[in-house]
Design a protein that fits this description.
The protein has 354 residues and is α+β, with helices and mostly antiparallel strands. The chain is built from eleven helices and eight strands. It has three domains: 170 residues, no CATH class; 51 residues, SH3 type barrels, CATH 2.30.30.60; 86 residues, Alpha-Beta Plaits (2-Layer Sandwich), CATH 3.30.70. A hairpin with a 4-residue loop joins strand 7 and strand 8. The protein starts with a helix and ends with a helix. About 1% of the residues have low confidence.
Length: 354
């Protein structure tokens, strides 16, 4: 009876230690995950330190995984399996740890790049090409570290990459051309994410993204235009947001020849001033202008110059101005003439004598 009791006690002691270590590791990871990291993540926005927020976000759900992994390894070690099994477990745990640390490092670097891009206001655009390059470099370095740890020499791999790089460069000329063209567009800061651009006077829209191969532009109809970076770098484009968002809006108007031009100018400026001050898409402090342009076929032409806060606001600004001006001209008796043409016919002398 005592023999069975001691065997049961030995079995309990043998299992209780690794189970306790494993449970304690999980509890510690959960505590750090739920209490420490979440509290730090909540404190970071108030402190205004964005890299800290990025680090806290990257470590989320990883602390508990690392402590669980460490607990499983220590539990296996205390369980006293064979030396070969322990070596395999140690190798597997180390490889998993290196891989997860690499993932966390890539998250932190990419997050800091994006945070800095938002804060820099155009110095470094928030474009996926930088994030993708940074992520790829860190993952490759982590992969090489794993190979080195496993005893696999990386020198032949680096040599093969160097020799094969030439062949890859020749085979991927178009892709590399797009890659370096995209980098040139970003570094020059002539086109940024969110800018409204017009390319070759045909395609226009907001820049959504500049990736390693192409640039994505969203038109006003919510359609996406995909342009290879190499084509874009060789195109003539207008960036309406490069210096400032606001822009002039020129509306052509014409009145009859017998109109009182001083009165026309005064009425037109009153209407334009009301539109400029009342519409949310207009620059309220801008004073509209009227500039006569010449004598047209059937009217005296002039331009009314307004100012919109950004490119797309010009359509509503022009729309509302034309409606109000037409209504005011009708009330004031100012005529907007139809296109007319007077034709003089001269009879030949030979026809008169007949």
């Amino acid at each position: 009876m005592n023999e069975y009791f001691y065997l049961a006690l030995e079995w309990i002691v043998k299992w209780i230690t690794p189970i306790s270590i494993f449970a304690l590791s999980i509890a510690t990871g959960w505590l750090l995950e739920k209490v420490v990291i979440r509290r730090v993540a909540k404190m970071m926005p108030a402190a205004g330190w964005e890299p800290g927020m990025v680090i806290a976000g990257a470590l989320r759900r990883m602390m508990m995984f690392w402590f669980t992994l460490a607990g499983a390894y220590l539990a296996a070690f205390n369980f006293s399996p064979e030396a070969s099994v322990l070596a395999s477990i140690r190798t597997l745990a180390t490889v998993i740890a290196i891989f997860t640390v690499t993932l966390v490092a890539s998250r932190i670097v990419v997050g800091i790049i994006n945070a800095f891009a938002k804060k820099s206001e155009g110095i470094l655009p928030s474009i996926s090409i930088f994030s993708n390059i940074a992520r790829a470099v860190i993952l490759i370095v982590g992969f090489l570290i794993i190979l080195q740890y496993l005893g696999i020499s990386i020198a032949p791999i680096l040599t093969a990459l160097g020799v094969g790089g030439l062949a890859v460069a020749l085979a991927l000329q178009d892709s590399l051309s797009n890659l370096f063209a995209g980098l040139q567009i970003i570094v020059s800061r002539q086109m940024r994410q969110g800018d409204y651009v017009e390319i070759d006077a045909e395609r226009r829209g907001y820049v959504v993204d500049i990736n390693w191969r192409n640039t994505v532009i969203r038109g006003l109809g919510n359609n996406h235009i995909i342009i290879p970076n190499s084509v874009l770098s060789g195109s003539v484009f207008v960036n309406y947001n490069l210096r400032a968002l606001d822009m002039s809006v020129v509306v052509p108007v014409g009145v009859a020849y017998d109109s009182d031009l001083e009165r026309v100018e005064r009425v037109t400026l009153e209407v334009a001033g009301g539109v400029q001050r009342e519409l949310p898409g207009a620059v309220a402090e801008f004073e509209p202008m009227v500039r006569y342009t010449g004598f047209n076929d059937s009217a005296i032409g002039f331009n009314v110059i307004l100012r919109a806060r950004e490119y797309v606001e010009q359509y509503m600004l022009c729309h509302e101005f034309v409606k109000r001006l037409h209504r005011r001209y009708a009330a004031e008796g100012i005529e907007i003439p139809f296109p007319i043409r007077t034709v003089y016919m001269k009879e030949k002398e030979s026809l008169k004598n007949k």
